[in-house]
Amino acid sequence: MIHKISLGVLLAILGLLELEAQAPSANNLIVFDPPSEKFTPVKLQAHMGLPRFGAFNSHMVKNTGATPAMRPARGNDGAHVMEQNKKERNGLLNFSILVGLKYLEPFMSDLDRERLTVVSSNTSQEQRNSAYLQQFLRTQVGPNLCLDNACNQTNQGKNEFERLRNYTSFVEVCLEPLQRWGQSFFKNDEMVGYHVSTLHVGRGYDFDKLGYWVGHYLNLNDVFTPKQGGAKRVVFEPVAAYEHELLKKINGKNNLQFFLKIDKQSAERFLKEGINRLYLVKKIKLKRSGKPMAFPYDPVEFNYSHVDSDVEVYEDEALTKHFMTLSLANLILKTN
Fold first, then answer.
1. What is the annotated signal peptide range for this record (predicted)?
2. Lowest CB count within 10 Å: 16, 54, 107, 280, which one?
3. Are 110 and 35 contained in the same domain?
4. 322 band by pLDDT with thresholds 50, 70 and 90
5. Do 209 and 103 share a structural domain?
6. Are 172 and 198 contained in the same domain?
7. DSSP letters for 128-175
8. Burial class of residue 201 in the structure, from the number of CB atoms within 10 Å of its CB (0-12 exposed, 13-18 middle, 19+ buried)
9. What confidence tens digit (pLDDT) does each residue in 28-71 have?
10. Ramachandran region of residue 103, left (φ > 0), alpha (ψ -120 to 50) or beta?
């Protein structure tokens, strides 16, 4: 039997389909689910289905007033954006903490699980390690990752008995599953993602060469949240021939200065629209370096290399307006 659908119903269905198609893409966010409801999920900004590091997408909207600029949304939309930014920044913070927890594993045998360690002038190195680990667990891991009262009160307590009780409760109930969860990050000590950095334009246009001199730091110490989960370093370690050649040309310096060709029409448009920075996106492979940690408070060091010699430049921090593609193999470098 053939059922007839009225034009109104058909239009309504098409409207719903259109709304669904305009919904935010799942590629803009990656969620790492926790092992239990006791812990909060880790949500990272993403690009092309992979984690996004470096310059953050703050979800700003374009101001259509007389002076073009980026501004936060107002009213309920503004509150929603602020809450979204907070969750995503907390996601990076929690990611950094879990990665730190993973690489502190060799020192966990020094952790006193029954008493809070007090450091004095004659404290042994094992006790110093225990004190550092307890501070990390009580002030970072528990309060940020735990939702359950048995775990998130690790640094709370009106007296020494409550503080000890809250600490031992965390150790008994939550430490082991959190350690297992931490081991799931950087499987095989590697991770692939995108790094976003800013290129400052708008001043000093070269009318002869048509473009701007811009800078880019090769060491990426904005991959992780600073001071969370312990200190971490991300050092450029060339793998491909073009990477070795690039490092050779800049004499091993971390600051890469290169010329970004932009025609006069685009440069003037950027000036009129208030665009004073562009966004350089490169696909990278992070890898735990072979440098050992002598103490738990030593920095965890990672190396990175480029997955591809091509890097993309976007006009907006949301990475929706592609501007150009560059090749790391043939950049015009400033070598002096």
1. 1-23
2. 16
3. yes
4. very high
5. no
6. no
7. HHHHHHHHHIIIIIHHHHB-STTTTTTT--SSHHHHHHHHHHHIIIII
8. buried
9. 899 999 999 999 999 999 999 999 999 999 987 654 444 444 55
10. alpha
* Euclidean distance between CA atoms 264 and 19, whole angstroms: 39
Report the distance separating Cα 72 and Cα 89, nearest Å. Answer: 16
Q: Which residues contact 48 (CB under 8 A, 6 or more apart)?
A: 27, 194
CB 185 within 8 A of CB 102: yes
Q: pLDDT digit string (tens) for 300-319?
A: 999 999 999 999 999 999 99
The first and second tokens of residue 180, run together, are 């297992």
Q: Does residue 178 contact residue 188 with C-beta atoms inside 8 Å?
A: no
Cα separation, 230 vs 40, whole angstroms: 20
Instruction: Count CA atoms closer than 13 A to 270's CA, side-chain side.
Output: 23
Residues 115, 99: contact at Cβ < 8 Å?
Answer: no
Mind listing the pLDDT tens digit for each residue in 135-192? Answer: 999 999 999 999 988 888 999 999 999 999 999 999 999 999 999 999 999 999 999 9
> How do 50-54 and 42-47 pair as beta strands?
antiparallel
pTM of the predicted model, to two decimals? 0.85
Domain total for the chain? 2
Answer for the pair 151, 170: CB distance below 8 angstroms, yes or no.
Answer: yes
- Considering only CA atoms, give the Rg of the chain: 25
Q: Is residue 1 part of a domain?
A: no
* Averaged pLDDT, 205-209: 95
How crowded is residue 223: how many other Cβ atoms within 10 Å of its Cβ?
23
Q: Is 56 buried (19+), middle (13-18) or exposed (0-12) by CB count in 10 A?
A: middle
Domain boundary at 133, 162, 184, which?
Answer: 184
Question: Quick check: 75 pLDDT over 80?
Answer: no
